[in-house]
Specification:
single chain, alpha/beta, eight-stranded mixed sheet, about 20% strand, globular, pyruvate
Length: about 240
């Protein structure tokens, strides 16, 4: 049984999928998003990460089941959970066997083998970094190919999607950009919800602690109220 590396675990998550959820943050991420607020999750081999088997993790998750009710469950997040595919697939399978609703919070930047993972995933929170290859590279520092491959697999599996998109002033904001996002999302099936997330600076202190320059120094968070109209519009035009 393949052990996984866990960054942390949140027992009462309220914003990472439907209902009350336990959020399992897996260690490791290959992207270097300019607005990332968890740079401490980047390195897969981190001395702060906890090693745990799928069986031990799900045994722990089962103890939280009374809090989930009928609408909650478990969300696997990161970092990027797809970078630990064998562990993730086994953990999802065991959650399903235990009757726990499973959600995958991902940017789709994995290793390319998704069948066993998607077979036991009830919902995907899909982090759409950008909708053009050039914009994607400007945001993440990486090629968009891995994301496209994951999205194609998720579409084939017909898994419901909640789309998330971080709005950063000067990078992923403005009428032209959001109109382009709308056109892109209209090409994707099975979207149930679109969330525009305003860029924030809550993780800036982690960069200082790690000795890493912060890429968006001086960029101020947008007023969340300015995104309300576009959020309504995207949910009306892009959701099934």
């Amino acid at each position: 049984m393949t052990a996984g590396l866990i960054h942390s675990l949140e027992s009462m998550g309220l914003v990472d999928g439907p209902g009350i959820r336990t959020v399992v943050f897996l260690q490791g991420c290959a992207l270097r998003c300019r607005y990332c607020h968890n740079p401490d999750t980047w390195a897969l081999q981190s001395p702060a990460a906890q090693s745990i088997t799928p069986a031990a993790l799900v045994e722990k998750l089962i103890r939280f089941q009374p809090y989930y009710g009928k609408n909650g469950g478990v969300t696997f997040s990161g970092g990027e959970p797809l970078l630990q595919p064998e562990f993730l697939a086994e953990a999802l399978n065991r959650c399903r066997e235990a009757g726990i609703h499973t959600c995958l919070d991902t940017a789709g930047a994995g290793l390319g083998e998704y069948g066993a993972i998607l077979a036991h995933t009830d919902l995907i929170l899909l982090d759409v970094k950008h909708y053009t290859p050039e914009g994607y590279r400007a945001v993440t520092g990486a090629d968009m190919g891995a994301f496209d491959k994951f999205l194609a697999a998720a579409q084939e599996a017909e898994i419901p999607l909640w789309v998330r998109h971080v709005v950063v002033p000067g990078l992923t904001d403005g009428e032209e950009h959001l109109a382009g996002l709308e056109r892109y999302l209209q090409t994707i099936r099975h979207i149930q919800r679109v969330e525009l997330l305003p860029y924030h600076t809550l993780g800036v202190h982690k960069y200082a602690a790690l000795g890493i320059p912060y890429p968006l120094e001086g960029v101020e968070p947008p007023d969340p109220s300015t995104l309300e109209d576009w959020t309504r519009r995207l949910n009306q035009t892009c959701c099934e």
